[in-house]
Amino acid sequence: MELPAGREAFGLLTALARVPDPRDPRGVRYSLASVLAVAVCAVMAGGEHVRRDRRLGR
User: Fold this and answer.
1) Neighbour count for residue 13 (Cβ, 10 Å)
2) Structure pTM?
């Protein structure tokens, strides 16, 4: 796939790693990119409810 000049291609995890993490560092167990990746997978699998879909990350 050829991109326009000045553009770069990167994967989903790389893109999610660029999202600033607003959480307090105390008590953080998982990187924000990991949490967001699980959420993306849940939505792609047809998930509609956060509480019900959180078990996918276990």
Assistant:
1) 14
2) 0.67
